[in-house]
Design a protein that fits this description.
alpha+beta; Glutaredoxin; four-stranded mixed beta sheet; 2 helices; globular; disordered N terminus
Length: 81
Amino acid sequence: MRKVSRRRLASTVVDLLRQFPLEDSARSELTRYLQYATGAKTVELNEQVEEELLAGTIVRTATEELDTSARSRLNQLRGLK
């Protein structure tokens, strides 16, 4: 994700989809990164466990999505043919 603006937002909501819950240390590190990437002072992290995800993570904000799931990667590879 890219830093969206130099002005800081008060807060932002981020949806996180993973096959397994994050450990506390990883959650803290991700929250700090998302504060930097979005320019928000605080980040509300809505973590959702999606068992159908084989690997990877999907991160969604109001304006952007970062999809590193295995399904997304396979679809990208199929598009290269």
